[in-house]
């Protein structure tokens, strides 16, 4: 076991596009939640980890006292790790909180920027503005917590190509270590989804999504951020080691309401509602709602879906060692089809998506489902 994800489900405001497990922090039993979370973390049988990622929700919505309680809980259990990431909103990342995070060995920030356009930030329901982005990064640089990732989205309602160009210019100025840049997907149970259903808005920009994605890839590469995963880019040696745990299809622990973990051949899912999570931890010392045992077919499919997201691709040798079957015996038909179409390529000991294949990744992944 090398990684842990910790979920903080509280936010000061609910964004219009967000479908993660989250609640407005006002009037929530935050202290009781953190105590239940401590009990879950303390129950884990391992103490040696390489990466920890605290996400949400918005972890920086916690007060200083609450934040320190969480940080102390994690430190007491696991000590220091090589990559320790906290998600943060620019307007909530005060100098005091940055200093506190640094004091507890947090060495990476995932900053929820989403866009540099103030009008689009309002549409997304974000609480920060352009100035907050620069201010928070200035504070991080001064305090010495300068390993940060900027999270962005494209395909936003009303977005123009000039907005993509503007983001690229700001990235070149700010020089973050890492960029995550995802296409906006409208999920059920979000404000955006409800507005679209009522005919109150339409989604997507006037530009084709593929054109934007291509510009994102090429633009970032030109300024020193080569792509290493479908939606992730970094300076040399600053790839997200925690997220690569997911894409490499390796095991990880998860703690908190609605979090998902993966141990051995078992994926587990924690109880989602905050109050139910607290009650279950207090009453039963157990917050796992569901366990799903994966069979060999499930694991082979996941190996393909997840590893193909990485530019490196699927290791032919690892696949055979892991499943005791040559990859072409299982997926020969699909591999031949997409190699011939120019969607996949085989280089040395890996099979990976081509530039064209990355544009239609989900369509390709469907062909790696095995009929039982």
UniProtKB/TrEMBL annotation:
SMART domains named among the record's database cross-references: Elp3
Domain Radical SAM core: 1-226
GO molecular function: 4 iron, 4 sulfur cluster binding; coproporphyrinogen oxidase activity; metal ion binding
UniProt organism field: Phocicoccus pinnipedialis
One Gene Ontology CC term in the entry: cytoplasm
Entry keywords, A to Z: 4Fe-4S, Chaperone, Cytoplasm, Heme, Iron, Iron-sulfur, Metal-binding, S-adenosyl-L-methionine
InterPro entries, per database record: Aldolase_TIM, Coproporphyrinogen-III_oxidase, Elp3/MiaA/NifB-like_rSAM, HemN_C, HemW-like, rSAM, rSAM_sf
Any one GO BP annotation for this protein: porphyrin-containing compound biosynthetic process
Protein known as: Heme chaperone HemW
Its job: Probably acts as a heme chaperone, transferring heme to an unknown acceptor. Binds one molecule of heme per monomer, possibly covalently. Binds 1 [4Fe-4S] cluster. The cluster is coordinated with 3 cysteines and an exchangeable S-adenosyl-L-methionine.
Main location: cytoplasm
Transport among keywords: no
Subcellular location(s) per record: Cytoplasm
PANTHER family referenced in this protein's UniProt entry, alphabetically: COPROPORPHYRINIGEN III OXIDASE, RADICAL S-ADENOSYL METHIONINE DOMAIN-CONTAINING PROTEIN 1, MITOCHONDRIAL
Similarity remark: Belongs to the anaerobic coproporphyrinogen-III oxidase family. HemW subfamily.
């Amino acid at each position: 076991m090398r990684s842990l994800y910790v979920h903080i489900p509280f936010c000061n405001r609910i964004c219009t596009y967000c479908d993660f497990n989250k609640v407005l922090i006002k009037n929530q039993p935050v202290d009781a939640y953190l105590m239940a979370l401590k009990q879950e973390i303390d129950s884990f049988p391992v103490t040696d980890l390489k990466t920890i990622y605290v996400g949400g929700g918005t972890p920086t919505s916690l007060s200083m006292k609450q934040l320190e309680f969480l940080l102390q809980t994690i430190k007491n259990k696991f000590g220091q790790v090589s990559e320790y990431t906290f998600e943060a909103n620019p307007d909530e990342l005060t100098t005091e909180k940055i200093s506190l995070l640094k004091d507890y060995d947090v060495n990476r920030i995932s900053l929820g920027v989403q866009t540099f356009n103030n009008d689009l930030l309002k549409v997304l329901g974000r609480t920060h503005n352009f100035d907050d982005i620069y201010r928070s990064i200035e504070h991080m640089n001064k305090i010495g917590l300068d390993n940060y990732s900027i999270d962005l989205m494209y395909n936003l309602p009303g977005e123009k190509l000039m907005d993509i160009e503007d983001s690229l210019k700001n990235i070149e100025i700010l020089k973050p270590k890492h960029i995550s840049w995802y296409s906006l997907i409208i999920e059920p149970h979000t404000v955006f989804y409800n507005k679209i259903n009522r005919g109150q808005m339409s989604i997507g920009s006037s530009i084709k999504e593929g054109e934007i994605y291509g510009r994102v890839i090429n633009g970032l590469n030109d300024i020193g951020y080569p792509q290493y995963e479908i939606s992730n880019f970094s300076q040399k040696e600053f790839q997200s080691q925690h997220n690569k745990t997911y894409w490499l299809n390796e095991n990880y622990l998860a703690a908190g309401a609605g979090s998902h973990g993966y141990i051995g051949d078992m994926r587990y899912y924690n109880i989602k509602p905050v109050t139910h999570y607290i009650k279950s931890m207090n009453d039963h010392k157990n917050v796992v709602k569901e366990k799903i045992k994966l069979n060999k077919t499930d694991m082979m499919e996941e190996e393909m879906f997840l590893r193909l997201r990485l530019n490196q691709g699927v290791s032919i040798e690892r696949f055979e060692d892991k499943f005791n079957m040559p990859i072409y015996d299982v997926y020969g038909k699909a591999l031949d089809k997409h190699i011939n179409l120019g969607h996949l390529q085989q280089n040395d000991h890996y099979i990976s998506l081509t530039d064209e294949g990355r544009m239609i990744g989900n369509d390709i992944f469907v062909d790696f489902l095995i009929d039982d």
